[in-house]
Structure to design on (637 residues):
């Protein structure tokens, strides 16, 4: 489901030959430019300074528990769908020192960790991942306690989305109303168009910063005809989506099926390895650990990614609350699709499909929810 | 800083390759700091100077394989306030526990010219199967940073940060791409305890399971995946039968495929 493009946004045409200028203008504006690269047989988000760093001519084939990168000879810069790692890693790092304390004659002195934060540009962020940022914003920025680590990074990013022309076998953005076309949450949104030997981008700009960057890269105003060609790319992509999730009443569906036998059945396959939560662009669970030096004269407080699939995550005095794999799998799925609504008024799932692709046991959330739904019919 | 009496530490070896106790010497940059905070009272790999017990901490490497070992580990236990086992031999019986799946007498007659001189037990067992153990540090070999963390925690009366979750968590924290999903490589990571820093997957290799079974390991489901990836029955038996072959979840899984 794509909402109409916001009318006040400006549209430009950027020739593929000018793409290096775009990268240069991003970097020239003081941003660390992050985007897709090919590493370890996957699309890995990393520093990008040249068009040569981009996965030109690579596509990815994705199914439950299987991801294969393939060279397809296309000139496309963004012909892949999604890599394993989400942008979360830049805004909400896997490990972060929060506090250092040192002992002196007058007592303990605590210092909050304040490492300088660099401005980052997210080049190639997909529409579903824009929604993931919106979800993380709700979780981490709203309410009484905003997360300072996330906030410091989030407030400085330049968002350059790329609309999807291809879809993966595990994508279901359409069902979650998050893609395949970006509608908000970006400075620039690019649609890559390759026809009749021509290769260019239709660039939608939503901010003054976006205008500045695209103009520096020699972007020129796009005609209505060119804009509708870009829209057609997104429409065609939406039609290719084969995976669907019926989200009608899913919040209540899961909430009333907490003792469903399906949880135990799925636990038979679930490895409780926590891969799904770690590739999820909205999972935010962390743990906090204290470390001391040998002499006990200094200590550090470190937080790192954790997962609701570990026993320690639900450990309270006397033991872990969720000590069975089915209780942990249920916790994850019901939180993502049901109790997240109660907590944040939004779905925790954005339909990127990473949890399906990267589950080593090929567990598919859409199948799990459908199975519970189907069981109510009989 | 409050002065504490340096704890007396002893290092003991049973059936093992010495690799884990060498991790202590391998601490290099941290070695002098460690040596400054503890009294190394008995560590034959490092020094012939031995201070008699009792000891505050005993680090025990190796598995129990002979009747003499049983007597000796009981003596170690009696002399030690804390007994910490280090490495796959001490915590799971080690690679030598492969003999547990066969009749050891067959090996003795095949290997030794004079089998009558050999006095050995039918099983190679972890230390915890013989005496009470206060903490088990996994690995083949152990990770020296984990060893320092355990010593540090002990000196400062806090719980060591030694997770029991899967290698997958370390892989993802380090930004490794999953070798099983992206390359179809069989990997024991989803059932293996973290602690190595996800070393093998970082080099595009599947996890060998050096750190033994994680908490709540689902080996049945993982073996099914291995079959999907084309692994044969014998290979599945073999993947579980390395350094932690006798750790119960791995043992049961390999035995299930032997039937």
């Amino acid at each position: 489901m794509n909402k109409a493009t916001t009318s006040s946004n400006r549209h430009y045409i950027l020739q593929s030959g000018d793409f290096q200028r775009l990268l240069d203008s991003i970097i020239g504006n003081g941003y660390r430019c992050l985007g897709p690269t090919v590493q370890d047989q996957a699309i890995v988000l990393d520093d990008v300074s040249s068009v040569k760093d981009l996965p030109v001519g690579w596509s990815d084939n994705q199914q439950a528990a299987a991801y294969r990168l393939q060279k397809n000879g296309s000139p496309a810069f963004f012909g892949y769908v999604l890599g394993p790692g989400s942008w979360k890693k830049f805004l909400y790092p896997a490990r972060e020192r929060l506090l250092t304390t040192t002992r002196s004659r007058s007592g303990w002195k605590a210092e909050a960790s304040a490492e300088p934060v660099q401005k980052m540009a997210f080049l190639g962020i997909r529409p579903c991942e824009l929604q993931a940022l919106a979800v993380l914003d709700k979780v981490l920025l709203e309410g009484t306690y905003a997360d300072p680590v996330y906030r410091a990074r989030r407030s400085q990013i330049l968002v350059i989305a790329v609309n999807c022309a291809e879809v993966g076998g595990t994508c279901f953005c359409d069902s979650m109303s998050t893609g395949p076309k970006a509608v908000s949450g970006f400075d620039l949104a690019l649609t890559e168009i390759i026809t009749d030997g021509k290769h260019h981008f239709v660039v939608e700009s939503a901010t003054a910063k976006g205008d500045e960057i695209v103009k520096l890269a020699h972007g020129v105003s796009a005609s209505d005809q060119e804009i509708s060609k870009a829209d057609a790319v997104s429409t065609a992509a939406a039609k290719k989506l084969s995976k669907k999730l019926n989200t009608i009443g899913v919040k209540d569906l899961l909430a009333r099926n907490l003792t469903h036998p399906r949880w135990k059945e799925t636990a038979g396959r679930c490895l409780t390895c926590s891969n799904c939560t770690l590739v999820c662009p909205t999972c935010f669970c962390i743990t906090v650990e204290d470390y001391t030096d040998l002499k006990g004269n200094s200590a550090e407080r470190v937080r790192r990614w954790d997962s609701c699939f570990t026993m320690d995550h639900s450990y309270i005095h006397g033991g872990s609350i969720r000590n069975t794999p089915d209780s942990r799998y249920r916790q994850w799925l019901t939180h993502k699709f049901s109790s997240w609504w109660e907590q944040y008024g939004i779905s925790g799932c954005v339909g990127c499909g990473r949890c399906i692709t990267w589950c080593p046991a090929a567990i598919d959330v859409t199948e799990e929810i459908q199975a519970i739904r189907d069981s109510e019919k009989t | 800083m409050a002065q504490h009496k340096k704890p007396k530490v002893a290092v003991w070896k049973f059936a093992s390759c010495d690799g884990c106790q060498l991790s202590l010497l391998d601490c290099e940059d941290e070695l002098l700091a460690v040596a400054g905070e503890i009294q190394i009272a008995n560590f034959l790999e490092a020094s012939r100077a031995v201070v008699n017990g009792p000891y505050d901490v005993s680090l025990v490497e190796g598995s129990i394989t002979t009747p003499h070992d049983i007597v000796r580990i009981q003596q170690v236990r009696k002399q030690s306030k804390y007994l910490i086992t280090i490495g796959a031999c001490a915590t799971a019986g080690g690679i030598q526990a492969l003999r547990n799946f066969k009749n050891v007498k067959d090996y003795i007659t095949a290997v030794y010219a004079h089998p009558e001189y050999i006095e050995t037990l039918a099983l190679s067992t972890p230390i915890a199967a013989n005496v009470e153990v206060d903490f088990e540090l996994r690995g083949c070999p152990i990770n020296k940073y984990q060893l320092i963390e355990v010593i540090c925690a002990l000196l400062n009366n806090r719980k060591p940060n030694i997770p029991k979750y899967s290698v997958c968590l370390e892989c993802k924290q380090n930004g490794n791409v999953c070798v099983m999903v992206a390359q179809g490589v069989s990997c024991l990571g989803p059932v293996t305890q973290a602690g190595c820093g996800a070393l093998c997957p970082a080099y595009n290799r599947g996890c060998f399971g050096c750190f033994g079974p994680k908490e709540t390991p689902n080996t049945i489901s993982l073996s099914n995946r291995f079959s999907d990836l084309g692994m044969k029955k014998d290979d599945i038996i073999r993947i579980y039968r390395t350094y932690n072959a006798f750790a119960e979840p791995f043992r049961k899984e390999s035995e299930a495929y032997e039937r």
Remarks:
- The longest strand of chain B covers residues 55-61.
- Chain B touches chain A through 46 residues (CB under 8 Å).
